[in-house]
Design brief:
It is built from 3 helices and no strands. By secondary structure, the chain is an all-alpha fold. The two termini are about 20 Å apart.
């Protein structure tokens, strides 16, 4: 019984990571600003925006997986 719960947790975690990855990629495609190059050039504001997008997507994914 414990192995089933561990396997289920691993599967949900993997699904969450995949959804987060595709969510960030979708944001990257829809937004006209190239945040990756901005962050590489040291633009702190672009880094904060990317971090906030990742955190908000993670919060949404966690709440969907939990319910």
């Amino acid at each position: 019984m414990d192995w089933v719960m561990v396997l289920t947790t691993i599967i949900w975690g993997f699904l969450g990571i995949i959804l987060l990855y595709f969510g960030v990629q979708l944001f990257d495609k829809l937004d006209p600003i190239d945040y990756r190059s901005q962050v590489e050039r040291g633009n702190l504001a672009a880094g904060v925006i990317v971090a906030s997008i990742i955190l908000s997507l993670a919060a949404i994914i966690v709440s969907v997986i939990i319910t």
